[in-house]
Amino acid sequence: MKHAIQIVALVLGLTTLPAQAACYADYKAKKDNPLKLHYGVMQIPNSACSSPSAAAKAIAPRLAAAGWTLLNIVSLFGDDGLQGRQANAGPYFLRF
Description:
Elements: H1 2-15, E1 23-31, E2 36-44, H2 52-64, E3 69-77, H3 82-89
């Protein structure tokens, strides 16, 4: 009986997925006529956190819907990097 309980506990432990941390990207974007630039921070799906190009594919359409063009992805990071970027991103911190 003791072994059966241990086996059940092991199976449950293996099938329980750990919570995934949130993924964020900081980026630079522009608008033309007149030229406007901004630096921002956006939460992106974990599937887009694998590379800057994957992040760009997730970010560009969201910015384009508001009239912005993505210039580049600065970096990808988790929750621990949010606080240090909030002041620099200003109104574009988690806006899109």
